[in-house]
Amino acid sequence: MQSAPGCLIDAELAGFLESPVMIIVGTGLGGVPEIGRGLGALVEAGGAALHLVVSAWQWPRTVSQARESGTIAITFARPTDYVTYQVKGQVEWIGPLTPALHARAARYAAEIAEVLAGLGMSPELTAPWRSKRDLVALRIRPQQAFVQTPGPRAGHALAERTG
Amino acid sequence: MTSLSFLDACFEGVVPSILCTLAADGTPNVSYLSHVARLGDAQVALSNQFFSKTSANLRGNPRAALLIVDPRNGTQHRLDILYRGSVQGGPAFDRMAADLRATSVQLGMADVMRLRAIDIFDVLDVRQVQSDREAAPPGPPSGQSLARALAVTEALMRATALGGMVDAVLDALASAFGHEATLLLLHEPARGCLVALGSRGYGTSGIGAEVPLGEGLIGLAAQDRRPVRVGDASRLRRYGAAILAGSEQEARTRSVALPRVPDAMSQIAVPMEAQGRLQGVLFLESKRRMAFDAEDGLVLSLVARQLGLAIALAEAEAGDATPLAPSGQAEVARGRSAQVVHHAQDDSVFIDHQYLVKGVPGRLLMWMLDAHSASGRIDFTNREIRADAGMRLPELKDNLETRLLLLQRRLEDKRAPLRLHRPARGRIRLEVTARLDIVSDRNPS
């Protein structure tokens, strides 16, 4: 079913994606999948695009596969209660961070470290998941969003855009 | 390729692992998963619970990416894995099913998460994900495990009487592992539960506290007869923590509260077995995260088996002991009186309205008190208790010594006006320091 542009990521979901949640990234090329982590996300006004920050130094294959294949899956999971959403989409552009994205990444890194510390995982322990070297921004056009919170609704499509 | 056996800490389930698969059209799917197990040095197993998209993807393209994290330093490892098939039974399945049950119980979701199948993967490659701060490499095992096992079993070996063995193991465990608290529980087959026989590190002894088989970490270890371990309990519901240990509570519920370390981060429960029978559970708690690793589980299993054998031996030896000596007669206690109330329904015994014990130890105490009030006897032998058909307790055959010890310690805990002493092997002396007023609702036999 076709949704009106901007409906895939509504304000509520956007708020969640931009909050201190764990961000994991899936890509694939030639039938070989890769995993990476994101260091913050920003949803464009209206929800038509999602900007994701990734360390190209720590996750080189994630960035190269995203560039070549153009498809990406990103799962956002809140560590305190396991509320989880997966967004799948097309990578439209990869490039340097804008000042706004730099600020976003810095704030995200600080906030998620604090959330995890609150759960008993010290910032030293979780630091290896947050490299800030060679950060790049991926502009993604979301096409599907799924609820992935563990439980009976896991895997249900939240919304889908076929256009 | 890094050997998988060096990555054991990553399979503890503390930091969630990440799995990525690809659909037929190349669309990736990335998700967290809680349970990854190492099968030998070249395979891993994933619990297949909710991941229908993942399953569908793997049927089309068996290649998957797996990211696991060392919970000690945050180091990430990337595994390239190849799906080989799913199994619904076998040792690996049983182990993962037990782990999952342990998690479910801790989260208060018992019976919610049933394992249907596990997915088996070949590991094609393992590589460490680079990070800005090079975490100290996990390093080889400390090599202290065998020394710890030896220290505990040595202490056990030097002890003679059953009570001494229990104390020796509890003390030796505390100094070998440096954890906060230990509980030793006995299996009570007739009532399908475990009963605490001794402890260290809690505010109260907890002797007499019961855990039903299958409940919590302790009950699970007993039911599945395998060690169950938690390394990061911060997110777990602290069920039971609010229960107050107190005489009033004990009397009302006819039970003793299980002692707990309220802010424990790590727990391990290990079954104690001998001659193919479950004898009890050793339970250790620590406030430190990841206090017990897989190797500690092995070491504690060895210790628990040694203790199980020692207890079995003590039971057998006590049965061989020769009764001797003229039976002592009680001096009539003067001064204060105490009321002993026995409820036949569960053999619970109360002294001056305070709950003492129930079940077999309750029955044992009443048997001795009956003889005491009839003829003033204070000396008994292990053998005559076993032989007395009136006890109607077939399970006592192999368990009498441990039940006597439980009764003896519980009487001490409650500072009761009657105590048990063990003047010699196979002999029991009752010390009564008050005039007893005994009331029982059982049918006269």
From TrEMBL, chain A:
InterPro entries: Split_barrel_FMN-bd
Source superkingdom: Bacteria
Protein name: Uncharacterized protein
From TrEMBL, chain B:
Pfam families the UniProt entry points to: GAF_2 (PF13185), PNPOx_N (PF01243)
Domain spans labelled GAF: 161-321
SUPFAM superfamilies according to UniProt: FMN-binding split barrel, GAF domain-like
InterPro entries referenced in this protein's UniProt entry, alphabetically: GAF, GAF-like_dom_sf, Pyridox_Oxase_N, Split_barrel_FMN-bd
Designated name of the protein: GAF domain-containing protein
Annotated source species: Sabulicella glaciei
Organism taxonomic ancestry: Bacteria, Pseudomonadati, Pseudomonadota, Alphaproteobacteria, Acetobacterales
